[in-house]
Amino acid sequence: MATIDGLPPLREVIARHGIAARKALGQNFLLDLNLTARIARQAGDLASCDVLEIGPGPGGLTRALLAEGARRVVAVEKDPRCIAALAEIAARYPGRLEVVNADALALDPAALLTPPVKVVANLPYNVGTELLLRWLEPPDWPPFWQSLTLMFQREVAERITARPGSRAYGRLAILAQWRSDARIMMTLPPEAFTPPPKVHSAVVHLAALPQPRFAADAAMLNRLVAAGFNQRRKMLRSSLKPIGPAIEATLRDLGIPPTARAEEIGLEDWCRLARAVAAERPKGGRAG
Ligand code: SAM
Asked: In this predicted structure, what is the pLDDT of residue 139?
């Protein structure tokens, strides 16, 4: 069957290059090029951007990104079996696809890219959250990326976009929403993938804000949120005790009930708390 880019259908590519899916690499492939085109379009205009793709696999999403007009795609793939298949795509789009055979966790991608950069990926489930946290937590802001358009397990997508008071609300929601606008763009059933995973998936779009939504020191915010949600059933006065003996008074001063639980506290109050705790500390003093 003819494809939009004149390259062979993905099933044929996979068979020819012997890329049987491996669970250990989180390989659930998208073989429908209409679907990968829809996902690529969630990232908006690509013509003036470099795109970083993590885990191109046999190249279904890569082909869509290029067909949708991405200026350049840098695709980082750990599995050496995929590299020859990806080289065929690079030959179809001269000068626009760079394939890097590497572990994305061991690579600084910013050095390979020319801004503005959009990240678009059907992430391997086993490293997806780790990569997202790295992209959300650089010491300086704005980050190297303008937006992230990422496929996750639906449960992770819901944790990224969760609102206070919900069970999904936690560290991931706070870190993501502090520095970006995060939205679920589409959900996909297991059958959309080969082989099908056990759970539904969702594409999340995160647009980096020029500056964090509310002022706060990133390390302090992270520390407070980690302490609060590590013991999310406990009241803040006890879950935040490791932060310091004055925490209950600080909460009271800010009008945050010390008896509230972490999941009841909105982003702005977490940031107010981070500022207040930082201001109480002697310069250069220990954080604990
Ligand atoms: N993008 C392809 C698609 O949509 O069909 C494949 C997506 S599959 C869910 C995840 C891909 O990430 C696989 O090709 C896998 O080999 C690759 N991968 C897994 N761990 C990786 C890592 N640490 N660094 C780079 N790629 C990785």
From this structure: 83
